[in-house]
Amino acid sequence: MAKYAGNDNLKKHAVYVYSEDQLGYKFSDTHPFNQKRLTLTTDLLRKMKALSNEDIVPPRIATDEELLLAHDARYIDIVKKASNGEVTAAQTESFGIGTDDTPIFPNMHEASARLVGGTLTAVDYVMENKASHALNLGGGLHHGFRGRASGFCVYNDSSVAIKYIQEKYNARVLYIDTDAHHGDGVQWSFYEDPNVCTISIHETGRYLFPGTGNVSERGSGQGYGTSFNLPIDAFTEDDSFLELYSTAFREIAAFFKPDVIISQNGADAHYFDPLTHLYGTMKIYHEIPKLAHQLAHEFCDGKWIAVGGGGYDIWRVVPRAWSLLWMEMNDMELPQDALPSEWLAHWQKESPVPLIPTWMDPDNLYEAIPRKAEITEKNKQVLDKALYSIRSH
Amino acid sequence: MIVEQMMNKNVLTLNPSNTIKEAVSILREKKIRHIPIVNEQGKVVGVVTDRDIKEAAPSNLLDGQNQELVETPLKEIMTKNPVLGHPLDFVEEVATIFYDQQIGCLPIVSGGKLVGIVTETDLLYKYIELTGAHQPGSQIEVRVPNKAGILFEVSKVFHDHHANVLSVLVYPDLQHESNKILVFRVQTMNPLEIIEDIRKEGFDVLWPNMPGMTT
Fold first, then answer.
1. How large is the ipTM?
2. pTM of whole model > 0.90?
């Protein structure tokens, strides 16, 4: 019957949740968190002919009821008041807003709730089988706490989305976070929940924000053993990063057997990123989505929701990294050669730094790191410690 | 901070005539390592630790062998007249006592009665809180000359940037005696401008350096 066949055809391969409204999440012109990244990425994908209008769905705004799944009513109230200019920074500071990191800006409640809504839109597409995969690059605000903003994040879209998946679809969620900063907000939201597994690979808290994410943070109570942390050294570089990521992600997925994978794709582990010191190159952004994609098919019947996250070199790193994510999601062959010259010509005018003209980074991006073998060895120990509890001995 | 603000008030105790077997079962069940021994008047007369037990008895203690041994009363193996603390002692003193006496717990006594206990683990946790490492923040280490007024000059930068300082520690600089290392945990994800301004003030900020290159 035609109508049944038609239903099947309606299922999209992947959706790209985006609208220009997402750019409204803007602290100031000089703040490192800059959603112009979304414009740059979307434009690059269009010029690659990898993204068409049919792929794009607009984000909705999360309702208060949805925000309450992972946030306190008092906190939401304060954000709304700040949003309308009804309170001063002095009154909101204890909620983490009105600070240098997370300043108050007009309509911050709506803008923040829209980023959450985008991730919920992505969730509904995937969980209702309208698409196999969905991407919301405006999401990934993994530092947001239940009652407090932190590290550029007001509401935590992943925390809300995971609770939403649990309530509405009753599914087991595996959350994997490759942002260079620890995914603390999401981890603490589900620290005692055995049906949500969080993995975060990040630069050690020795100097870097937020300082948490030690191997020993494994969850508590019923949730003990479903939080995994891989704190890696500054100057880790590609190979060691990928060794830990691939081994841990694969083994943990096999152990936890999720129904759906949410990946947080902060693109701030790159050598160029001003805030971090991991010295990754584009190679990791080729490999990270490949494995997430593969494991989603292996364990979750393809169900994969990807969100953005950090990424503070918005010109040279983020557009390339996030484009690769979308192309991988759509089974496109990942490009290695030159970026579209039109894109380069258009954006070079605005960019304060020379753009990288190719998908991969040039060789010898930086000088060789002394003591590479020791850093690799130390990271390997972190990996073994993190996976100790799920390996047979 | 004083001891009564951090001591554990729910203390499990035994008396001198309880047996090794009873002590072992409490240590295992409650996952603790120290048991104060009190007499009928509630006075602390000893302490039994997991180590006392290991020294007194072989490891197959509970396997039904050495029946006689496991029935040994604790008064025969306990550390008698243990070092005691008071609720108004300073926490810093407790740390010194642990270090000097090489012990791992301090029963806290007031009015002749046991009112609490402080262990190495409690102290270590207080130290973690002290460093601010349990709250989201960036760590910034600054090498400064060891003289008056410097902390003010550095912390002025945090004030100017409206950055909340979670903790401050002052370490000796092992390489240069005329310096100190100030360690701040600051509630910000973007410390770059702060670091730049501290450097402008003429101080040396220690930040991830190429491994192998000492600062």
1. 0.73
2. no
